[in-house]
Fold each of these.
Amino acid sequence: MKQIEKLIKLIEINLKEKKKIFLFFDYDGVLVPIQNNPDRAYLPRTTKDGLIRLIKNKSFKVALVSGRTLNTLKRLTKLNNKEVIFIGSHGFELLYKGKTSFFSKQNISTINKIRPKALKVAKSVAKGFLEYKPYTFTYHIRDTKKSNLVEKLSKVMKKFLKENKLHNKLKILKGKNIVEVLPQEVSKGHAVEKIIKQFPNYSYIYFGDDVTDISALKIVKRYKGISVSLNPYLKYKTDFLIHPKNINRIIRV
Ligand SMILES: [Mg+2]
């Protein structure tokens, strides 16, 4: 049996046993394919309809967990249902039942202070652009001439933070053509754990495709949940590996 079939079967068994299921979805690369222009990564209609059906079903709880800001997530998904939980900015912001709150407020001003200098540093390594995000420094690399630029840029950024004595306050995240700088204490894993504590007695499943999802995949395992990767190259062993095109089969269970 293929992994996707096994996973669907497992969900069905849980439902038959009247267990409630909490589904955590990363956004880019999980619910939407990775786009060249991140501004246009809209939630596909069929995925959205499926999510709304799940949200309305009392057996499920749904959270979107993304590096994107809440505002961007709202704009791209147009999911207005108040029951859906949005975790934005890598676990910094939370939107639930129409209320926004923050998981941590430390070290945000530090990010703002370093932004202009950090941008200069980034531009000197690779062509690209800064995404407007209030709580992180997010640089999208768009440079086809050189290779290994994510590695190179993160090394240079690390040095930059060290020189400015900020390496204990800020950390670097590497993604697909993205290098981000954000407060040390912010992670998807921290945010997901806080949500899990608010919703005990669920079976948790996390779907992720990138390095930034690893902390959350680990937390879900700690709470006896299921970890699912949509990226065969992810450097973390999950319970299941599925192809991104199969995400809609999960949403339509
Ligand atoms: Mg992703």
Amino acid sequence: MKESLSIVLRQLYPKGTHVLKDVSSNDFMPLDLSTNNPGLEGLDITQADVCERYINRLLEASGKKVAVGGYLEKRSLYGSSERFQNEAIRNIHLGVDFWTEAGTPVVAPIAGKIHSFANNSDFGNYGPTVILEHLEAGITFYTLYGHLSLESFTLWSEGKEIEAGTVIGILGTAEINVGYAPHLHFQIIEDLNGFRGDYPGVCSEKDFKYYAKNCINPNFLVQLPC
Ligand SMILES: [Zn+2]
């Protein structure tokens, strides 16, 4: 029987790896953007500047560089965007977010090749996005990096081989990323289901079971408590 992707990756990367250049897990501060966080009461975090001020205040108080978290978190971050209206409410987050300064270089946590990329530029989407394809222990899977900058496109061509630790993008500003405080959205995806340069980063309650299984918990890989 084929091992599960989670087990394979845990065996290959028992100490985890990194997605931000020159940042270690000592620089991380856990961030709760769930609807259960009382600290968010009265704050409209769908506004990028409000969200950024909230996060920066916490970072300053903690003395850390990067606010991280969000896998399977139920959020009120997506409510006002037209992108998330007229459909079942999608508010469960399928990746992990790294909230830090625009301009921060993003690196490939593991080797692979560039599968596809796109500028998903409708408001509330990912903005510039790249997807890497990986093959480990006979399992093909993908990692997605969203909310990057326009200059990141100069680093991308389909099929380009990428070594672990190579810079694969630069974090974008709210204007480019499109409408969020600067952060990296990182997601592991087993079956891309035909998507190219894009894949849902949030899901509805109704589809939770499928997406939670197809987008495994990435925390162990980036040295976060699971
Ligand atoms: Zn995200």
